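Subject: ANTAR domain-containing protein structure
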Amino acid sequence: MSEDARTEWGQPSTEYGGPGPDRLGAALGDLARRLRGEKSEQNTLDAIVHAAVDTIPGAGHAGVSEVRRRRRIRTTAATADVVRAVDEVQYNADEGPCLSALYEQVTVRVPDLAADPRWPRFTAGTAKLGIGSMLSFRLYTAEDDNLGVLNLYAERAGAFTDESEQVGLLFAAHAAVAMSDAQQVTQLTHALGVRDVIGQAKGILMERHRLTGDQAFASLVTSSQRTNMKLLEVALRLVESGELPTPR
């Protein structure tokens, strides 16, 4: 998307050929089609952050922060190194707009990062990183306690407006759906891979010891319990080495 189309959303554009709302709808339609075409979860995340910069007025950089199963937060996609640097300050300080959006379930706009009193440790840590304003959107809360935030960054103060927030909310809704779909595909692919490995291990035991499928599976479970290893690890060891692991 052109710079004019991104920063002057309310004006006619030769790119989308219509007024602001039409162009926004076209941009979000393009986004949905593009995200559906991505082949992996990471590709989907990378596409989201780059599209956010192209779509949301004022955004110079973008990143996605995620907490998987309520564990440590991390940046899973970013358009620039400065995004990861700012995020790391937030994580270490345990405060900042990203964390507020994540845990307080709000949209957080920071017009002037240097002058904002809400997160003193965070603003002190980012003073030399060249970011003047931020905008953060909560993305989703999944049943398995996964949390996500879309963070936008600009070098100058006052870069984000009411329009930025409105467009960003619509964009975040599309991004959340795309992320959820990509995660489900990843989980399904992993599950199929696990089933395949366990099936190979069962086949080895069935042929070697003349066992039924249930007996072979029970043998894997017993080995898992005796060695204090996960069932998948036991199956992988058998497939790769031809032997069941033994207790230490």
